[in-house]
Amino acid sequence: MNLSVSIIVPCYNASHYMHEVLLSIQNQTYKNIQCILINDGSTDNTLEIIKNFPDERFEIYDQQNKGLSDTRNFGLEKAKGDFIFFCDSDDLLPPKAIETLVSVYTGKEDIIVGKTATYSWDRKENISSLPHPSEKQLIANEHSEVLIKNMTEGLSPIAQNKLYRKSFIRENHLKFLSGIYHEDELWFFETMFRAKNITFIPEITYLYTVDNAQSITKKKSDKNLLGYLSVIKTIYNNYYIKYPNNNISAYYIAYLKKIIIGNFKNDSNYSDAAVREMEKTFKEVNPEFNDTINLKNIEKFYFKYLNTISLKDPDTIKKEYFNSPVNSLRKHFRIIMFRLFNSNLK
Q1: E strand or H helix at 138, and its extent?
Q2: What pTM was estimated for this model as a whole?
Q3: Both 248 and 133 in a single domain?
Q4: What CA–CA distances, in Å, run from 265 to 221, 222, 272, 280, 307?
Q5: How far apart are CA 34 and CA 57, in angstroms?
Q6: Sequence-separated (6 or more) residues with CB below 8 Å from residue 299
Q7: Which of 118, 94, 89, 122 is nearest to 12 (CA)?
């Protein structure tokens, strides 16, 4: 099978990285690629670097700044390959990345996921890796097994380093939500909610740069908080309400609320207006929980507990759950379980 892969690369003010990123794509051992390079209104010489990089497989587009979601969506429209792969303009691909991912395809997979190494651009070395299964796994995703795995064990909910079957994306009309931060969190939920078969492989197929100071993950602000709130509202309206017999949405919303509360604890520079929006959204996005889900009882209890905490006002959350030494929701939960256990012994 000589399957083609469309690599979508949104490019914004990436002149420091661009040449090496393009070189890592050009040097892929798997040659049947279409590389879609979209300059998203860069104010440096990113576009010039792209234009001066000769490769007939590289398609160059230039647009006014629209943001990452709209840029990726534009790339999805232009994709001609059998598969779609996202690469950021400050990350690198090992030489055999695409070959390794494509070689796994059996005709069943909607998504194939490689292991992502965190990479120091300055030191030119891998540091660690993002959460990922240690062995190859083909998951038949009939009951949202991948989303449950992310909630309980942790996975990497980034859009990059995943080979998506294009027909799967098109048939399900999947797009990135425009104009928000943390669009990957929603994309991960939507793709893993709908995918029937997903394979995880243990080989490193992506180098994720962690020392780019301009990355939005490094700049916590109201937009980060509001982005996450948009994600849980979208999941609530488009999945919890529309698919009442599917039990994953309520628990996943509670899981994301935990992340939001954790960020609230560590980033006290949110504006009062953003915090009020968090309180309002938490109370509006208040799902009911169905126990017919493949979670241990203690995990069901934990996610219900998280949702209960989210309904309290922000000052109470700060006062009761952020104080040392019991300074995390998980620690508070363990104390509650310990007390329940002891009371049942009496």
Answers
A1: strand 137-140
A2: 0.94
A3: no
A4: 13, 14, 14, 18, 16
A5: 5
A6: 151, 152
A7: 89
Q: Are 207 and 126 in contact (CB under 8 A)?
A: yes
Q: Indicate if 208 and 249 belong to the same structural domain.
A: no
Residues 138 and 272 in one domain: no
Other C-beta atoms closer than 10 Å to the C-beta of 53 total: 18
Residue 108's φ and ψ, nearest 5 degrees, are -100, -30
**What string of DSSP letters covers 196-221?**
SEEEEEEEEEEEEE---TT-GGG--S
Residues 296 and 336 in one domain: yes
Q: How open is the CA angle 101-150-126, to the nearest 5 degrees?
A: 55
List Cβ neighbours of 184 (8 Å cut-off, separation of 6 or more): 157, 158, 159
Whether residue 198 contacts residue 110, with contact meaning beta carbons closer than 8 Å, is answered with yes
Q: Looking at 191, 216, 241, which one is the last position of a domain?
A: 216
List, for residues 108-148, the tens digit of each pLDDT value. Answer: 999 999 999 999 999 999 999 999 999 999 999 999 999 99
Question: Are 186 and 230 within one domain?
Answer: no
Tell me the helices (H) and strands (E) count for the chain, helix number first.
13, 9
- Residue 341: which pLDDT band, with cuts at 50, 70 and 90? low
Residues spanned by the domain of 287: 220-345
- pLDDT over 90 (residue 288): yes
